[in-house]
Amino acid sequence: MSALLSIRDLRKSYGALKVTDGISLDVPAGELHAIIGPNGAGKTTFIHQLSGSLKSDSGAVHFDGADITRLSMVARVKRGLARSFQITSILDGFSVLENVATAVQARSGSSFRFLTPAASETALNAEAMEALARVNLADRAHRQAGTLSHGEKRQLEIAIALATGAKMLLLDEPLAGTGHEEGAILIDLMRQLKSTHTIMLIEHDMEAVFALADRVSVLVYGKLIATGDPAAVRADPAVRAAYLGEDA
Amino acid sequence: MTNLLLLQALNGLQFGILLFLVAAGLTLIFGIMDLINLAHGVLYMVGAYLTATFTSLTGDFFIGLALALPAALLFGIVLERLIFSQLYDRDHLEQVLATFGLILILNEGVKMIWGAAPLSVPIPDILSGSVPLIGPMRFPVFRIVIIAAGLVTALGLWFLVARTRIGMLLRAGATNAPMVSALGVDVKRLFMLVFGLGAMLAGFAGAMVAPILSVEPGMGNNILILTFVVIVIGGVGSIRGAFVAAILVGVVDTVGRTFGPIILRSLMDPSAASQTGRTLAPMLIYILMAAVLFARPSGLFPKAGAS
Amino acid sequence: MSETTLTSAADAASPARPRLAGRGALIGGIVLLALFAVLPPAATAMGDPFLVVTATRIVIFAIAALSLDLVLGYGAMVSFGHAAFLGFGAYAVVILAAAGIDDLLLQSLAAIAGSALFALVTGAISLRTKGVYFIMITLAFGQMAYFFFVSLSAFGGDDGRTLQHRSTLFGAPLIENDVTFYYIALAVLAAAFVLLRTVVASRFGRVLRGTRDNRVRMQAIGFAPFGYQLTAYVIAGALCGLAGVLLANQTEFVSPAFMTWQRSGELIVMVVLGGMGTLTGAIAGAVGFLVLEEVLSGLTEHWHIVFGAIIVLLVLYTRGGIAGLFSRLFGGRA
């Protein structure tokens, strides 16, 4: 099995509450794997465990051939596993370009350089512009990030994750809070990213998930109750009962 | 030697008890309101001055104390309403600034009202004796009274926090303040109460030291820092942590000052030992704090397990 | 010059943001330094040469405030023990002088090394904590240093010690002349201002600023804040130590009173009221603070009460706008 991300029996509980209850999952390179599930299913906790911002109680996570279970968030990013945030998390006071250039800087040489202005490092800026171009934000490069529209901020989130040089992106509800048109832009964007990146997508928007995902896993009360291609999952009676039934 | 150790341990205990009285209110204020209050030491000073004034007016320490305590409570509540209530939702830096300004005001205010010269309060006659320890050493009754009063207060606080409805809210508040307000509790009144209580406890500590230390402007400054050390070691928001840490700091500081040089003398020549001892002794509690924080960055009794 | 077109473009997009040390702050800083530069001849012309002595003190505290701004305004670390470094610098002068080393440069070197070492050790421990813990632990370490110097009976303990004479420079008593000394202090201030502006615009400074604004974001792109914050803490400590060397020479006296926690508090007041994270604001804050102190203490012996009231009222009633208000009052175009 040559999965890029391989999760074995991952667990996390708060007191008696089992938030992540023995998840095992393999995501092969190149796949867009969507995680769906009702509110409170533990999706965000799961992402926190994968990105390293939350320690797991037990279980193992392997990424790109290495055991990353006990690595910090910083170390995971350096290995190529990057995340975006459910609640927009950008540097509001920086320019759009500087937000992305900072992420480029994190993997290009030492940041213990004190005497040359970072903002005029053309190599950093050029790479950052490429990432911005990929998310269609090139024309916003010199705006202050805090002044972007909500949808543009979500695009910027993705550009930052791209700029870390990640092999795999953990996207935590990239469509959260976006309107129909903004959502369409982001869906289109993720479709393009699929060709170059392995993606784990946590998302509420079913339409988007079934349009984009190669495979879908359904998370209910900390357990994966189904994994498979979108059509099979949609047809799964247990899934319909636990989850899709809400909408039907 | 053993006698000296016993004597210094008792002195350390007494000092620790005082630190606890000041720290108890402050740790609750930190823990529940997430407010850093530099002016807490000033409340200790105000307690001492009120006691000195009421004692000299009435000619009786106990009446003076009985009048000073409610006055300190009232003073705390007035300060809370006027200033602190507006600081709860500010960031720590603004709290630091405002309470720093308040120290300047109150220290200078005390100087204007009572003058810069130290006041002294006589030890009441019935508490002025001393009891024999082993051998020729004796321990003053008044210091025993301080220890006893502190232990009774600690017990009372424990009862309040562990056994009453208010205590339940305080414990919940120290862990999760938004939850308490979500329960529909009048948080404003709870905060005012905690603040008043903290002010009264600090004032009580000030009142109890008035007869054994000189009452002077700025007397709250040094104890404030020691109180911070206590709270950091004990864990912010934890009364139990404050108690353990206060006794620890009190004993380590007092015993270290006496025995540090003695121990060093067996390791190096006397003059070097005495200089090293004098240098190290006052730093001992800070080294202790650094060591505790190095091992446990959130203190001995961190918030999640606060009680 | 070190500010780039990028930042000023961002400025243009949102002119209301006070924290960006844009072109305005640079011009403000240059104006302040230029005013300092013409002060001695102006003081002579006004027949008040003593003004230079007061101004020297202001310049030295501006250096200290500048260093604190790196920690507080850029590093997002509320350090309440910064005055300790003033003490380290001042005692480097008196201790080396007692050992027969009067050279200002050697003393400065020792002060920088000593302060940097103290910052490295205490910073590494303090940065393991957050929030109120960090404030209290830096305060406690500051007190530890204070008591250390109090215990040095060979150097006067509590009472401190008077310097025989100011330090020498290139073997000559160059800085005995108040005006020469003033210009040397001013040169240090100008150099520190330029250096710190360069540092905050560098790769390192960008990480520091990013961490201040959004710590988790920076971790999520691969920056562990600890090393960057600690480095900033050490740089600031070393620079403040240098200010301590100058302060000892200005007062020709050294005592633990240089490094009380009240002094640390005053430095914070200077930085915050002048405007954090702009560098120019720290200089303006030092000027404002010391001028106000001078004026108030001339009016009443109880000036502390007025001063305290001003601080409290500013915090309570100029919510979020303290920096703006003060830079309007003192910083002019800053």
Structure explained in plain terms:
The complex is a heterotrimer of chains A (248), B (307) and C (334). With 248 residues, chain A is α/β, with parallel strands linked by helices. Helices cover 37% and strands 25% of the residues of chain A. Chain A is built from nine helices and ten strands. In chain A, strand 4 and strand 5 form a beta hairpin. The model of chain A has no long low-confidence stretch (mean pLDDT 90). Chain B has one domain. In chain B, 73% of the residues lie in helices and 2% in strands. Chain B contains twelve helices and two strands; from the N terminus they run ααααββαααααααα. The longest helix of chain B has 32 residues. Chain C has 15 helices and two strands. In chain C, helix 5 runs antiparallel to helix 6 and helix 6 runs antiparallel to helix 11. Chain C starts with a helix and ends with a helix. The interface between B and C is large, with 48 and 41 residues.
Tally the helices of chain B: 12
For the report, how would you describe the main beta sheet of chain C? 2 strands, antiparallel
The biggest sheet of chain B, with number of strands, parallel, antiparallel or mixed sense and barrel status, is: 2 strands, antiparallel
What is the count of structural domains of chain B? 1
What radius of gyration of chain C results from the CA coordinates? 19 Å
Number of strands of chain C: 2
Shape of chain C: globular
Helix content of chain C: over 70%
